[in-house]
Amino acid sequence: PAHRPAAPMATALPKLVLLLACFLACLALDLDKSEGLCEGGQCTAEVDEEAIRSHYADLGQDQVFKFADKLSADERLTFFQQLQKINVPSVVGDLKAAQSVKPKVSSDAQPLSHQTKLATAGAEATEKWRQKGLEAIAAGSVGFIVLAGGQGTRLGTKDPKGMFDIGLPSHKSLFQLFAERLLKLQSLASGKFAGSSIIPFYIMCSPHTCEKTKNFFAENKYFGLSADNVVFFSQGTLPCFDFDGKLLLESSGRVATAPNGNGGFYKALEDSGVLADLSSRGVRYLHLSSVDNALARVADPVFVGHCIETGADVGAKIVAKASATEEVGVMVEDAEGRVGILEYSELSPDLAAATTDSGELVLNAANICNHFFTTEYLKRVAALPMPAHIAKKKIPFADPATGEKTAATKKNGIKLELFIFDAFVHAQKLVALEVSREDEFSPIKNANGGPADTPEIARSLLMKQHRRYLSDAGAEIVGEGDVELAPMVSYAGEGLSAYKGKKIDSFPVIISDR
Predict the structure, then answer these.
(1) What percent of the chain has pLDDT over 70?
(2) Quick count: other Cβ atoms within 10 Å of Cβ 155?
Protein backbone atom coordinates (compact mmCIF):
# COMPACT_ATOMS: atom_id res chain seq x y z
CA PRO A 1 0.00 0.00 0.00
CA ALA A 2 0.96 3.62 -0.35
CA HIS A 3 2.88 5.07 2.55
CA ARG A 4 1.64 8.45 3.72
CA PRO A 5 3.62 9.71 6.73
CA ALA A 6 1.60 10.75 9.73
CA ALA A 7 1.22 14.51 10.12
CA PRO A 8 2.63 16.00 13.34
CA MET A 9 -0.86 16.92 14.58
CA ALA A 10 -2.43 13.56 13.83
CA THR A 11 -3.62 12.71 17.32
CA ALA A 12 -6.90 11.02 16.54
CA LEU A 13 -5.37 7.55 16.81
CA PRO A 14 -3.56 6.25 19.85
CA LYS A 15 0.16 6.64 19.35
CA LEU A 16 0.86 2.89 19.45
CA VAL A 17 -1.74 2.17 16.75
CA LEU A 18 -0.40 4.98 14.59
CA LEU A 19 3.17 3.72 14.84
CA LEU A 20 2.07 0.18 14.05
CA ALA A 21 0.09 1.34 11.00
CA CYS A 22 3.07 3.28 9.65
CA PHE A 23 5.38 0.32 10.25
CA LEU A 24 3.07 -2.04 8.38
CA ALA A 25 2.71 0.42 5.48
CA CYS A 26 6.47 0.79 5.18
CA LEU A 27 6.91 -2.98 5.36
CA ALA A 28 4.32 -3.55 2.67
CA LEU A 29 5.92 -0.91 0.43
CA ASP A 30 9.17 -2.84 0.35
CA LEU A 31 7.57 -6.10 -0.73
CA ASP A 32 8.07 -7.15 -4.34
CA LYS A 33 4.80 -6.31 -6.13
CA SER A 34 5.80 -7.69 -9.47
CA GLU A 35 3.27 -7.82 -12.25
CA GLY A 36 2.17 -11.43 -12.53
CA LEU A 37 3.51 -12.50 -9.13
CA CYS A 38 1.63 -14.74 -6.68
CA GLU A 39 -0.53 -16.99 -8.79
CA GLY A 40 -4.11 -16.54 -7.72
CA GLY A 41 -2.86 -14.24 -4.97
CA GLN A 42 -1.72 -17.27 -2.95
CA CYS A 43 1.68 -16.52 -1.40
CA THR A 44 2.72 -18.04 1.88
CA ALA A 45 5.82 -18.04 4.03
CA GLU A 46 6.00 -21.83 3.78
CA VAL A 47 7.02 -23.36 0.48
CA ASP A 48 6.80 -26.79 -1.11
CA GLU A 49 10.20 -27.08 -2.76
CA GLU A 50 9.38 -30.30 -4.59
CA ALA A 51 6.20 -28.84 -6.10
CA ILE A 52 8.02 -25.66 -7.15
CA ARG A 53 10.85 -27.63 -8.75
CA SER A 54 8.34 -29.75 -10.64
CA HIS A 55 6.36 -26.70 -11.76
CA TYR A 56 9.44 -24.93 -13.12
CA ALA A 57 10.71 -28.11 -14.80
CA ASP A 58 7.38 -28.60 -16.56
CA LEU A 59 7.70 -25.06 -17.92
CA GLY A 60 11.30 -25.55 -19.06
CA GLN A 61 12.68 -23.12 -16.49
CA ASP A 62 14.51 -25.50 -14.12
CA GLN A 63 17.86 -23.80 -14.88
CA VAL A 64 17.05 -21.52 -11.95
CA PHE A 65 17.95 -24.37 -9.57
CA LYS A 66 21.58 -24.60 -10.70
CA PHE A 67 22.92 -23.40 -7.34
CA ALA A 68 19.94 -24.15 -5.11
CA ASP A 69 21.52 -27.11 -3.34
CA LYS A 70 24.47 -24.95 -2.26
CA LEU A 71 22.31 -22.36 -0.50
CA SER A 72 21.91 -22.20 3.27
CA ALA A 73 18.54 -23.02 4.78
CA ASP A 74 17.58 -19.34 5.09
CA GLU A 75 18.81 -18.58 1.56
CA ARG A 76 16.84 -21.52 0.17
CA LEU A 77 13.67 -20.36 1.89
CA THR A 78 14.04 -16.83 0.52
CA PHE A 79 14.82 -18.15 -2.96
CA PHE A 80 11.89 -20.55 -3.11
CA GLN A 81 9.57 -17.88 -1.73
CA GLN A 82 10.55 -15.67 -4.65
CA LEU A 83 10.05 -18.53 -7.12
CA GLN A 84 6.64 -19.28 -5.62
CA LYS A 85 5.56 -15.69 -6.29
CA ILE A 86 6.49 -15.62 -9.96
CA ASN A 87 3.61 -16.43 -12.28
CA VAL A 88 5.83 -18.11 -14.86
CA PRO A 89 3.17 -18.82 -17.51
CA SER A 90 2.05 -15.20 -17.35
CA VAL A 91 5.47 -13.57 -17.68
CA VAL A 92 6.64 -16.06 -20.33
CA GLY A 93 3.43 -15.31 -22.20
CA ASP A 94 4.19 -11.58 -21.97
CA LEU A 95 7.67 -12.22 -23.35
CA LYS A 96 6.42 -14.28 -26.28
CA ALA A 97 3.73 -11.72 -27.08
CA ALA A 98 6.31 -8.94 -27.06
CA GLN A 99 8.63 -10.96 -29.30
CA SER A 100 5.85 -11.61 -31.79
CA VAL A 101 4.84 -7.98 -32.21
CA LYS A 102 5.59 -6.75 -35.69
CA PRO A 103 7.50 -3.46 -35.91
CA LYS A 104 5.28 -0.47 -36.51
CA VAL A 105 5.22 0.75 -40.08
CA SER A 106 6.36 4.33 -39.74
CA SER A 107 5.10 5.20 -43.22
CA ASP A 108 1.55 4.80 -41.86
CA ALA A 109 2.14 7.46 -39.20
CA GLN A 110 0.45 10.82 -39.62
CA PRO A 111 1.05 14.05 -37.71
CA LEU A 112 -1.47 14.99 -35.03
CA SER A 113 -4.58 16.44 -36.61
CA HIS A 114 -5.50 18.37 -33.47
CA GLN A 115 -3.08 20.06 -31.13
CA THR A 116 -2.87 23.43 -29.44
CA LYS A 117 0.28 25.52 -29.47
CA LEU A 118 0.58 27.59 -26.32
CA ALA A 119 2.73 30.13 -28.15
CA THR A 120 -0.14 31.02 -30.50
CA ALA A 121 -3.11 30.40 -28.20
CA GLY A 122 -3.19 34.03 -27.14
CA ALA A 123 -2.92 35.73 -23.75
CA GLU A 124 -6.67 35.70 -23.14
CA ALA A 125 -7.05 31.94 -23.63
CA THR A 126 -3.90 31.18 -21.64
CA GLU A 127 -5.09 33.29 -18.71
CA LYS A 128 -8.51 31.66 -18.85
CA TRP A 129 -6.90 28.21 -18.57
CA ARG A 130 -4.63 29.39 -15.76
CA GLN A 131 -7.55 30.68 -13.71
CA LYS A 132 -9.54 27.49 -14.30
CA GLY A 133 -6.55 25.44 -13.17
CA LEU A 134 -6.00 27.57 -10.07
CA GLU A 135 -9.68 27.27 -9.20
CA ALA A 136 -9.45 23.46 -9.42
CA ILE A 137 -6.32 23.52 -7.25
CA ALA A 138 -8.02 25.71 -4.65
CA ALA A 139 -10.91 23.25 -4.56
CA GLY A 140 -8.50 20.40 -3.75
CA SER A 141 -9.29 18.70 -7.06
CA VAL A 142 -5.72 18.46 -8.43
CA GLY A 143 -2.91 16.08 -7.47
CA PHE A 144 0.62 15.81 -8.81
CA ILE A 145 2.57 12.61 -9.37
CA VAL A 146 6.25 12.26 -10.18
CA LEU A 147 7.73 9.10 -11.68
CA ALA A 148 10.85 8.70 -9.58
CA GLY A 149 11.81 5.04 -9.73
CA GLY A 150 15.16 5.48 -11.45
CA GLN A 151 18.63 5.77 -10.01
CA GLY A 152 21.17 8.30 -11.24
CA THR A 153 23.60 5.65 -12.46
CA ARG A 154 24.51 7.47 -15.66
CA LEU A 155 24.99 10.63 -13.62
CA GLY A 156 27.57 8.94 -11.42
CA THR A 157 25.43 8.24 -8.38
CA LYS A 158 23.47 5.29 -7.01
CA ASP A 159 21.02 7.62 -5.27
CA PRO A 160 17.49 8.11 -6.61
CA LYS A 161 17.62 10.55 -9.50
CA GLY A 162 15.29 12.96 -7.69
CA MET A 163 18.00 13.55 -5.08
CA PHE A 164 20.40 14.82 -7.74
CA ASP A 165 21.86 18.35 -7.48
CA ILE A 166 22.07 19.78 -11.01
CA GLY A 167 24.50 22.49 -9.94
CA LEU A 168 22.27 25.44 -9.06
CA PRO A 169 23.79 28.11 -6.79
CA SER A 170 21.38 26.91 -4.06
CA HIS A 171 22.31 23.25 -4.67
CA LYS A 172 18.66 22.27 -4.47
CA SER A 173 17.80 18.75 -5.59
CA LEU A 174 15.18 17.95 -8.19
CA PHE A 175 12.85 16.75 -5.43
CA GLN A 176 13.24 20.07 -3.59
CA LEU A 177 12.53 22.10 -6.72
CA PHE A 178 9.35 20.11 -7.34
CA ALA A 179 8.17 20.39 -3.73
CA GLU A 180 8.79 24.14 -3.55
CA ARG A 181 6.98 24.72 -6.84
CA LEU A 182 3.98 22.93 -5.37
CA LEU A 183 4.15 25.13 -2.28
CA LYS A 184 4.15 28.28 -4.40
CA LEU A 185 1.27 27.02 -6.52
CA GLN A 186 -0.80 26.29 -3.41
CA SER A 187 -0.13 29.87 -2.29
CA LEU A 188 -1.15 31.29 -5.67
CA ALA A 189 -4.39 29.28 -5.68
CA SER A 190 -5.34 30.26 -2.12
CA GLY A 191 -4.78 33.90 -2.99
CA LYS A 192 -7.30 33.69 -5.84
CA PHE A 193 -10.02 31.27 -4.75
CA ALA A 194 -11.57 29.88 -1.59
CA GLY A 195 -10.80 26.30 -0.69
CA SER A 196 -8.13 24.05 0.80
CA SER A 197 -5.59 24.72 -1.99
CA ILE A 198 -3.85 21.45 -1.17
CA ILE A 199 -2.03 19.60 -3.94
CA PRO A 200 -1.21 16.08 -2.73
CA PHE A 201 2.23 15.01 -3.95
CA TYR A 202 2.44 11.36 -5.04
CA ILE A 203 5.90 9.90 -5.57
CA MET A 204 6.19 6.63 -7.46
CA CYS A 205 9.51 5.07 -6.51
CA SER A 206 10.84 1.57 -7.12
CA PRO A 207 12.04 -1.19 -4.79
CA HIS A 208 15.56 0.14 -5.41
CA THR A 209 14.79 3.77 -4.52
CA CYS A 210 11.85 3.85 -2.09
CA GLU A 211 13.72 3.68 1.19
CA LYS A 212 16.25 6.37 0.25
CA THR A 213 13.52 8.58 -1.19
CA LYS A 214 11.36 8.37 1.93
CA ASN A 215 14.34 9.04 4.18
CA PHE A 216 15.44 12.00 2.05
CA PHE A 217 12.06 13.68 2.37
CA ALA A 218 11.85 12.98 6.09
CA GLU A 219 15.36 14.30 6.75
CA ASN A 220 14.47 17.51 4.90
CA LYS A 221 11.09 17.90 6.60
CA TYR A 222 9.30 17.35 3.31
CA PHE A 223 10.70 20.65 2.02
CA GLY A 224 7.94 22.58 3.73
CA LEU A 225 5.04 20.45 2.53
CA SER A 226 2.73 18.78 5.02
CA ALA A 227 3.93 15.23 5.54
CA ASP A 228 0.33 14.07 5.35
CA ASN A 229 0.16 15.29 1.75
CA VAL A 230 3.26 13.47 0.51
CA VAL A 231 2.46 9.90 -0.51
CA PHE A 232 5.04 7.30 -1.55
CA PHE A 233 4.21 4.15 -3.47
CA SER A 234 6.23 1.59 -5.40
CA GLN A 235 5.97 0.54 -9.00
CA GLY A 236 6.02 -3.16 -9.73
CA THR A 237 8.83 -5.32 -11.05
CA LEU A 238 9.07 -8.08 -13.65
CA PRO A 239 11.52 -10.99 -13.95
CA CYS A 240 14.35 -10.71 -16.49
CA PHE A 241 15.18 -13.24 -19.20
CA ASP A 242 18.23 -14.28 -21.17
CA PHE A 243 18.08 -14.18 -24.96
CA ASP A 244 16.83 -17.78 -25.06
CA GLY A 245 13.74 -16.95 -23.02
CA LYS A 246 15.05 -18.45 -19.79
CA LEU A 247 14.61 -16.71 -16.44
CA LEU A 248 17.91 -15.05 -15.58
CA LEU A 249 19.58 -15.63 -12.23
CA GLU A 250 20.99 -12.49 -10.62
CA SER A 251 22.85 -14.56 -8.04
CA SER A 252 22.82 -18.14 -6.83
CA GLY A 253 19.65 -17.52 -4.83
CA ARG A 254 17.70 -14.86 -6.70
CA VAL A 255 16.02 -14.41 -10.07
CA ALA A 256 16.90 -11.07 -11.65
CA THR A 257 14.04 -8.55 -11.65
CA ALA A 258 13.67 -4.97 -12.87
CA PRO A 259 11.09 -2.17 -12.53
CA ASN A 260 8.27 -2.68 -15.01
CA GLY A 261 8.46 0.68 -16.80
CA ASN A 262 6.41 3.84 -16.51
CA GLY A 263 3.32 2.02 -17.79
CA GLY A 264 3.29 0.03 -14.56
CA PHE A 265 2.03 3.15 -12.84
CA TYR A 266 -1.62 2.40 -13.67
CA LYS A 267 -1.72 -0.89 -11.79
CA ALA A 268 0.56 0.46 -9.06
CA LEU A 269 -2.02 3.18 -8.35
CA GLU A 270 -4.62 0.53 -7.65
CA ASP A 271 -2.41 -2.00 -5.85
CA SER A 272 -0.91 0.64 -3.54
CA GLY A 273 -4.20 2.23 -2.56
CA VAL A 274 -3.38 5.54 -4.26
CA LEU A 275 -6.58 5.41 -6.35
CA ALA A 276 -8.58 5.07 -3.15
CA ASP A 277 -6.57 7.91 -1.62
CA LEU A 278 -7.34 10.15 -4.60
CA SER A 279 -11.04 9.45 -4.20
CA SER A 280 -11.02 10.03 -0.45
CA ARG A 281 -9.38 13.42 -0.97
CA GLY A 282 -11.74 14.43 -3.74
CA VAL A 283 -8.93 14.65 -6.32
CA ARG A 284 -10.48 14.62 -9.81
CA TYR A 285 -7.41 15.46 -11.90
CA LEU A 286 -3.83 14.24 -11.78
CA HIS A 287 -0.84 15.86 -13.46
CA LEU A 288 2.18 13.61 -14.02
CA SER A 289 5.83 14.25 -14.86
CA SER A 290 9.03 12.25 -14.88
CA VAL A 291 11.50 13.30 -12.20
CA ASP A 292 14.38 14.06 -14.55
CA ASN A 293 12.80 17.13 -16.17
CA ALA A 294 14.29 20.03 -14.23
CA LEU A 295 11.98 22.55 -15.90
CA ALA A 296 8.72 20.70 -15.22
CA ARG A 297 5.88 22.98 -14.16
CA VAL A 298 4.32 20.76 -11.54
CA ALA A 299 0.49 20.67 -11.38
CA ASP A 300 0.65 23.31 -14.12
CA PRO A 301 -2.58 25.34 -13.85
CA VAL A 302 -2.46 26.32 -17.54
CA PHE A 303 -2.20 22.69 -18.69
CA VAL A 304 -4.72 21.43 -16.13
CA GLY A 305 -7.12 24.25 -16.98
CA HIS A 306 -6.77 23.59 -20.71
CA CYS A 307 -7.57 19.89 -20.24
CA ILE A 308 -10.58 20.66 -18.01
CA GLU A 309 -11.84 23.30 -20.44
CA THR A 310 -11.68 20.90 -23.39
CA GLY A 311 -13.27 17.99 -21.51
CA ALA A 312 -10.22 15.73 -21.96
CA ASP A 313 -9.69 12.65 -19.84
CA VAL A 314 -6.06 12.41 -21.03
CA GLY A 315 -3.71 15.24 -21.92
CA ALA A 316 -0.13 15.30 -23.16
CA LYS A 317 2.38 18.10 -23.19
CA ILE A 318 4.60 18.03 -26.25
CA VAL A 319 7.48 20.11 -27.57
CA ALA A 320 8.81 20.62 -31.07
CA LYS A 321 11.67 18.24 -31.84
CA ALA A 322 15.12 19.77 -31.55
CA SER A 323 16.20 18.05 -34.76
CA ALA A 324 15.23 15.23 -37.08
CA THR A 325 17.72 12.92 -35.34
CA GLU A 326 16.73 13.71 -31.74
CA GLU A 327 16.26 10.44 -29.87
CA VAL A 328 12.74 11.05 -28.62
CA GLY A 329 9.39 9.46 -29.34
CA VAL A 330 6.80 11.44 -31.30
CA MET A 331 3.03 11.57 -30.94
CA VAL A 332 1.33 10.48 -34.13
CA GLU A 333 -2.00 9.30 -35.47
CA ASP A 334 -2.66 6.14 -37.41
CA ALA A 335 -4.98 5.80 -40.41
CA GLU A 336 -8.01 5.50 -38.07
CA GLY A 337 -7.08 8.65 -36.17
CA ARG A 338 -5.91 6.83 -33.06
CA VAL A 339 -3.15 8.65 -31.17
CA GLY A 340 -0.01 6.82 -30.16
CA ILE A 341 3.73 7.20 -29.74
CA LEU A 342 6.24 6.21 -32.37
CA GLU A 343 9.67 5.59 -30.85
CA TYR A 344 12.65 7.25 -32.54
CA SER A 345 14.05 3.81 -33.40
CA GLU A 346 10.84 3.05 -35.33
CA LEU A 347 11.11 6.12 -37.56
CA SER A 348 12.69 5.71 -40.98
CA PRO A 349 15.39 8.35 -41.63
CA ASP A 350 13.41 9.75 -44.56
CA LEU A 351 10.20 10.18 -42.56
CA ALA A 352 12.07 11.59 -39.57
CA ALA A 353 13.61 14.25 -41.83
CA ALA A 354 10.45 15.04 -43.83
CA THR A 355 9.37 18.69 -43.58
CA THR A 356 6.31 20.78 -44.39
CA ASP A 357 6.29 23.67 -46.84
CA SER A 358 7.17 25.97 -43.93
CA GLY A 359 10.24 23.89 -43.07
CA GLU A 360 8.83 22.31 -39.89
CA LEU A 361 9.29 18.58 -39.36
CA VAL A 362 6.18 16.66 -40.38
CA LEU A 363 6.41 14.44 -37.28
CA ASN A 364 7.40 17.12 -34.82
CA ALA A 365 5.39 16.41 -31.66
CA ALA A 366 8.04 15.16 -29.23
CA ASN A 367 6.67 13.20 -26.27
CA ILE A 368 8.10 14.44 -22.94
CA CYS A 369 6.26 12.13 -20.49
CA ASN A 370 4.16 14.95 -19.06
CA HIS A 371 0.49 14.03 -18.83
CA PHE A 372 -2.92 14.90 -17.44
CA PHE A 373 -5.44 12.28 -16.35
CA THR A 374 -8.87 12.36 -14.84
CA THR A 375 -9.26 10.10 -11.83
CA GLU A 376 -12.17 8.39 -13.56
CA TYR A 377 -9.94 7.46 -16.51
CA LEU A 378 -7.30 6.03 -14.17
CA LYS A 379 -9.92 3.90 -12.42
CA ARG A 380 -11.05 2.61 -15.81
CA VAL A 381 -7.65 1.54 -17.08
CA ALA A 382 -6.00 0.35 -13.84
CA ALA A 383 -7.23 -3.22 -14.24
CA LEU A 384 -6.80 -3.44 -18.02
CA PRO A 385 -3.97 -5.57 -19.44
CA MET A 386 -0.95 -3.72 -20.77
CA PRO A 387 1.34 -5.03 -23.54
CA ALA A 388 4.95 -5.61 -22.56
CA HIS A 389 7.87 -4.34 -24.63
CA ILE A 390 11.34 -5.81 -24.94
CA ALA A 391 14.39 -3.87 -23.77
CA LYS A 392 17.77 -5.51 -24.24
CA LYS A 393 19.94 -4.41 -21.34
CA LYS A 394 23.04 -5.09 -19.29
CA ILE A 395 21.64 -7.09 -16.38
CA PRO A 396 23.60 -8.32 -13.33
CA PHE A 397 23.84 -12.10 -13.51
CA ALA A 398 25.03 -15.13 -11.54
CA ASP A 399 28.57 -16.17 -12.43
CA PRO A 400 28.16 -19.57 -14.17
CA ALA A 401 30.88 -21.12 -12.03
CA THR A 402 30.30 -19.59 -8.60
CA GLY A 403 26.80 -18.12 -8.62
CA GLU A 404 28.19 -14.79 -7.43
CA LYS A 405 26.36 -11.66 -8.60
CA THR A 406 28.33 -10.24 -11.51
CA ALA A 407 28.03 -6.95 -13.40
CA ALA A 408 27.37 -7.35 -17.12
CA THR A 409 29.78 -5.65 -19.51
CA LYS A 410 27.48 -5.98 -22.52
CA LYS A 411 23.79 -6.48 -23.15
CA ASN A 412 23.03 -9.97 -21.89
CA GLY A 413 19.31 -10.14 -21.30
CA ILE A 414 15.79 -8.84 -21.66
CA LYS A 415 13.79 -6.57 -19.39
CA LEU A 416 10.07 -6.35 -19.98
CA GLU A 417 8.71 -2.82 -19.81
CA LEU A 418 5.23 -1.33 -19.88
CA PHE A 419 4.72 2.05 -21.59
CA ILE A 420 2.40 4.66 -20.13
CA PHE A 421 1.13 5.74 -23.53
CA ASP A 422 -0.13 2.27 -24.47
CA ALA A 423 -3.26 3.00 -22.41
CA PHE A 424 -4.05 6.18 -24.35
CA VAL A 425 -6.21 4.16 -26.76
CA HIS A 426 -8.74 3.92 -23.93
CA ALA A 427 -9.09 7.70 -23.63
CA GLN A 428 -12.44 9.15 -24.61
CA LYS A 429 -10.74 12.44 -25.49
CA LEU A 430 -7.02 13.12 -25.66
CA VAL A 431 -5.62 16.62 -26.14
CA ALA A 432 -2.06 17.69 -26.88
CA LEU A 433 -0.62 21.03 -25.78
CA GLU A 434 2.64 22.13 -27.38
CA VAL A 435 4.78 24.14 -24.96
CA SER A 436 8.14 25.88 -25.18
CA ARG A 437 11.11 23.54 -24.82
CA GLU A 438 13.22 26.39 -23.39
CA ASP A 439 10.65 26.97 -20.66
CA GLU A 440 9.44 23.47 -19.83
CA PHE A 441 11.68 20.64 -20.98
CA SER A 442 15.25 19.81 -20.12
CA PRO A 443 15.66 16.11 -19.27
CA ILE A 444 18.67 14.92 -17.30
CA LYS A 445 19.81 11.59 -18.68
CA ASN A 446 23.57 11.88 -19.28
CA ALA A 447 26.52 13.06 -17.22
CA ASN A 448 28.07 16.45 -17.91
CA GLY A 449 30.21 16.32 -21.01
CA GLY A 450 27.64 14.30 -22.93
CA PRO A 451 26.19 15.56 -26.21
CA ALA A 452 22.71 16.26 -24.83
CA ASP A 453 20.37 16.00 -21.84
CA THR A 454 22.99 16.82 -19.20
CA PRO A 455 22.68 18.54 -15.80
CA GLU A 456 24.74 21.46 -17.10
CA ILE A 457 22.31 22.08 -19.96
CA ALA A 458 19.33 21.94 -17.57
CA ARG A 459 21.06 24.30 -15.12
CA SER A 460 21.89 26.75 -17.90
CA LEU A 461 18.30 26.79 -19.22
CA LEU A 462 16.91 27.34 -15.73
CA MET A 463 19.30 30.24 -15.08
CA LYS A 464 18.42 31.85 -18.44
CA GLN A 465 14.74 31.44 -17.65
CA HIS A 466 15.12 33.21 -14.31
CA ARG A 467 17.08 36.07 -15.88
CA ARG A 468 14.33 36.40 -18.49
CA TYR A 469 11.60 36.49 -15.82
CA LEU A 470 13.38 39.31 -13.99
CA SER A 471 14.18 41.25 -17.15
CA ASP A 472 10.56 41.01 -18.29
CA ALA A 473 9.54 42.42 -14.88
CA GLY A 474 11.79 45.42 -15.44
CA ALA A 475 14.92 44.45 -13.52
CA GLU A 476 18.26 45.61 -14.93
CA ILE A 477 20.71 42.71 -15.09
CA VAL A 478 24.24 43.88 -15.88
CA GLY A 479 26.81 41.30 -16.92
CA GLU A 480 26.81 37.54 -17.17
CA GLY A 481 26.34 35.13 -14.29
CA ASP A 482 23.87 32.89 -12.51
CA VAL A 483 20.60 34.34 -11.27
CA GLU A 484 18.42 31.89 -9.36
CA LEU A 485 14.83 32.58 -8.36
CA ALA A 486 13.54 30.40 -5.55
CA PRO A 487 10.23 28.77 -6.52
CA MET A 488 8.53 30.49 -3.59
CA VAL A 489 9.37 33.85 -5.20
CA SER A 490 7.82 32.99 -8.55
CA TYR A 491 6.28 29.85 -10.06
CA ALA A 492 6.42 30.93 -13.70
CA GLY A 493 7.49 34.57 -13.84
CA GLU A 494 4.56 36.09 -11.96
CA GLY A 495 4.79 38.39 -8.92
CA LEU A 496 8.08 40.11 -9.71
CA SER A 497 6.91 43.72 -10.00
CA ALA A 498 8.94 44.65 -6.91
CA TYR A 499 12.10 44.11 -8.95
CA LYS A 500 11.21 46.73 -11.57
CA GLY A 501 14.12 49.15 -11.88
CA LYS A 502 16.36 47.12 -9.56
CA LYS A 503 19.92 46.53 -10.68
CA ILE A 504 21.54 43.10 -10.45
CA ASP A 505 25.27 43.13 -11.18
CA SER A 506 26.84 40.72 -8.71
CA PHE A 507 26.83 37.00 -9.37
CA PRO A 508 25.86 34.38 -8.51
CA VAL A 509 22.70 35.66 -6.88
CA ILE A 510 19.93 33.68 -5.21
CA ILE A 511 16.65 35.51 -4.81
CA SER A 512 14.67 33.68 -2.17
CA ASP A 513 11.53 34.30 -0.16
CA ARG A 514 13.62 34.60 2.97
Answers:
(1) 90
(2) 21
